[in-house]
Each structure stands twice: as structure tokens, then as C-alpha cells.
Amino acid sequence: MSVDQGDRKGFVPPPYPYDLLDEARAAAAALPGGAVDLSIGTPGDPVPDVVAAALGAAVDPARPYPPSVGSADLLGAVCGWFDRRLGLSLEPAAVGVCVGTKELVVGLPQVLRLRDPGRDTILYPAVSYPSYAMGAELAGCRAVPVAVDAEWRIDLSAIDEADAARALGLWVNTPGNPAGALDDLAAAAAWGRERGVPVLSDECYIEFTWDGSPRSILQHGTDGVLAAHSLSKRSNLAGLRVGYYAGDAELVHYLREVRKHQGFMIPGPAQAAGAVALGDQAHVEAQAGRYLRRMRLLVELLAGLGIEATLPQGGFYLWVAAPDGDAWGLTRRLAETLGIVVSPGEFYGPQGSGHVRIAVVAPDDRLDLVAERAAAAS
After folding, report:
1. pTM of the model
2. Any idea which fold 60-278 has?
């Protein structure tokens, strides 16, 4: 039996941004050797040997239900990483795991609203990862963008105090996606504490910080803040879905307990492999070298086409101003000339229009092909 909904309409998902690139993909694929997709930040390099070995050996963890909060080995590895890399001493009870950080990013607004039903707003950088806004929308919250400055850093002074009073949380992202900027995390933490607004710091590109040392909001205290991390970028493990969060003791405890009821669990073998990945820094340093080398190559290739690009402060994206502000025109040109697929900046918010984002995630042999095409075009 059908029910007449009348004029009532529920949530209608917008087009997924990367599905809008089919024309560019077709143009790039028409070149000899095919398309080189640099539109999405999906790591294209091999899984580290130490992690592959751990996955192959993880037979027993595949049998029982894995712990939702994280296995003792994985939580211990997370704490060890925070200690070695950032000088932070955390207890395992102050950490939780998630099925990749996108799941956490999109799901947090709903959980935060359950925790504080008197508020209804998520604040996020105006040029940023689209899932910050989408998570708010899926939770029935207000998604309010916060302007970024000329260097693509979040501008805390631009936040309306009326919005702050309704805020369930403020997202910051350092190094930032798409522009690679480094926010003032100390200022963000202070802003949130002054207003009782949790500051949610997405730090999944932390291992690829080029300007200075890796930085976390937790270095400025844990009260009122939550840091989200992932092995997807750090260890080329996007498909394994291993993420983790740490910070404010009460908030972490709340999330761990709620997530038990939600049934979120990282598969046991993935938890075992994640613990091994966090204990090995050599593969991360090798990957960082690859990304930096590739960005320098693409900066040089773009210069040969008369397109100016500079290295970011962090991350593995080039954020490139399009000639005459025509991002879609530059997207077509790069597809037709170099055979690469890139993302127009409007995918990351209206303030990003006029730019394109280039992810240096393709293996070296594919970028060698791009270099050959660039030489032929010059």
C-alpha cells in the first residue's frame, strides 16, 4: 500500500561532486595511455610491506566480533604514535577508533546533537572537505561556513557570535584540504573553550606537514577539543578504513559508548594491521618523499604551460588559480593536454571557485607519462 506524500519532500542527495567529472575523464582517457586521475585523494601507491604481512597473519582477529572502541594493541599503538611524533602522553581510555575518519566526520553532528539538543549548528571552513557540511545536513543541523583568509586559513573573527551560541562544534583542518594551509590551532582551541564549543580538528594529513613540524590541536590541551586521524593517507590504507580520535575525556567517553550502540567496528584484521602500521615510521617517510617529489614535478610541468602553482604548507594537493578564474576551463585543458583529471575548486565551497585541486596520488610511472605529454605540448 502506497502512502501519498503530497507536497512533502525529504532530503534529496545532491550530485556527488566527483561524478561531475565524466566529461574530463573521457577527454583524458582519449589520449594514448589513458587518463591519470588526480581528482580524488585516494592513495595509489602500494600498501607497506609490514602492513601487508600483518594482514596476511591476522587470522585469529577475524573470528570474534572486534572491540568497537579499539583493540588493546591498536589503542596502545595510537598512544605510542602520539608520544613519539607529537610528545603527547595519552591513556588508551582517551582514544577511540572509527571506520575511517569520513564516517566520523559525517556522523559526529548527529551524536553531538543528541548530547546537546539545545544546539543545532556545525561551523566549518568555507573552503574545505565537503563532508563537514554534508554531515551537518544529514543530521538536520545548520551547516554554517566560516570564511577563510587570503592564505586559506580559517578566520575565527568572521564567526557570528549568534552562530557560535548555537554551535555543536567547529571543524578545523590542518594541513587543510584543499589548499594545504596550516591553521592557528592554539587560537582555535582557545576560541572554543571561551564559548563552550567543541573544536573538531581533522588532522588526517598531519604526516605530510612541509612547513615546520607536525602539529595537533591536542598540543594545546585536551579540554573541549577532539582530534581525528586516519591511516588512509599516512599508510596508503584508504580501503582498510582505520581511523581514530582523541581529546576531551568526557567527549571521547561519550563517543565510545554511543558508538558501541551504533555497532561501528573496524574489522579485527584491519585493527591488527593498523597497530603495525602505526608502529612503523619508515614507510611514512618514504611516502612523504614521493608526494613532495611529485608536487615539485607538477609545479614545473604547469609552469611550462604558463600556469603558476606553488607548494602547499602541508598535504599532497596543489591548489592552483585558474587563468581568468575559469576552473572548469582549466579542468578541460589539463584533461585534453596532459590527460590528467583534476577537481574544480567549487567542489570545496563557493569561495574556492576559480581554482583547481590536483592530488599527486598517481604512481610515478603514470606521472612520467604526464611529463612526456607536457614535453610534447610545449
Report:
1. 0.94
2. Aspartate Aminotransferase; domain 2 (3.40.640)
